[in-house]
């Protein structure tokens, strides 16, 4: 893709981990609505669970997650108690004991509170939810704060069977520039210990667009990551949004690669991953050919939620902890983001609801369209509209918005079928934005990361 096309589409668009996106959440949805929507959760289908731990020992300057530096054991103990209390309150609204298909731990650094406290939380979840025999229990980990003994506790006692390690980059200069010094040997030793603990599904994160990244050093990092043979790889583009996260101001704009250099870094990593037998299954996710995720993508069974791409088919996601977002039958609900505000709300005896959005029938239709584009790189608009009982002609104006992408051979349209072509897959979010009725870019108040 030449620089002219590159710059044309280097716009700010959502990552579409949900639709409507969190930008549309409002405080008009509160505790009362939260409790009512929990009571609507059906008993027929399993649910997924998410626990957010908003603490890290050291703050990485590139991080866009809801986290803070935390080292006080009293804070960790109080937070654990209150998450358990929140689970009790939510379960009281649910009534019957639902089945759980998956548990995902995110943050922050979940293990920052210690495996023993994590064990207390998962025991509380098991008390209120019937874990399916093949339930996926996934944890995001930081090799710098996880001992071999911790790994044994996670895998043997908690049943963790999938892990993800944030590598980002192995180059020492890049690591220092983003305040995440994490040598290769440490990561390799952690991978070895995870494998010994029985982890057969491992993901590594790489990030392009960081300070001082070049073709040579990022290529070397990609080779090292591939050499660790993870089942999955995630290739994130660094989103520099210092107006949203003040710590990003510690990263100098002049040290960052420009849009064209970012694309070259992505292409370089893509070549390395393709050569190693990884399949591009979504926007920034790669999986080994023949793996569960790769097969699900080929068969149209891949899904996307707030944790990224998944084979989990649960339509309901119950989320606990500060800033956690639940997907409920009637809409999305988010907890208070600041750990202190979250804890105070639970202490007061109520849910920690901050905001949310009710789903309309049109939202559900567009959500399906966007998810198919994000997961399959194609969608049959007529078939999708038929499923929702909506005349497909109502999407004519949205389809017309794809014309620039079509003209640049990034998207192909045949009747009502939309295909994102291989050279346009990095820009799949631009195709999704054509069907997003809320997306209205405001250069004076940017709300999303750039497409590249």
CATH topology of the largest domain: pyruvate-formate lyase- activating enzyme
Q: What's the main sheet like?
A: 9 strands, mixed
> What would CATH call the class of the largest domain?
Alpha Beta
First and last CA, distance: 12 Å
Portion in helices: 25-40%
The count of helical stretches stands at 16
* Approximate strand percentage: 15-25%
Which parts are unreliable, with pLDDT below 50 for 5 consecutive residues or more?
Answer: none
- Structural class of the secondary elements? alpha/beta
Explain how this protein is built:
By secondary structure, the chain is of the alpha/beta class. It folds into two domains: 21-358, tm_1862 like domain (pyruvate-formate lyase- activating enzyme, Alpha-Beta Horseshoe); 361-433, Arc Repressor Mutant, subunit A (Orthogonal Bundle), CATH 1.10.10.920. Helix content is 37%, strand content 21%. It has 16 helices and 19 strands. The protein has helices spanning 3-8, 31-39, 73-94, 115-128, 148-157, 172-177, 184-196, 215-227, 259-275, 292-298, 339-347, 361-376, 381-388, 396-400, 403-407, 428-433; strands at residues 47-53, 55-56, 68-69, 99-107, 130-141, 162-168, 201-208, 232-237, 278-280, 285-288, 303-305, 308-310, 317-320, 325-328, 331-335, 353-358, 378-380, 411-414, 417-420. The strands form five sheets. It has a nine-stranded mixed sheet. Helix 3 runs parallel beside helix 4 (115-128), helix 8 (215-227) packs parallel to helix 9 and helix 12 runs antiparallel to helix 13 (381-388). It starts with a helix and ends in a 19-residue tail after the last helix.
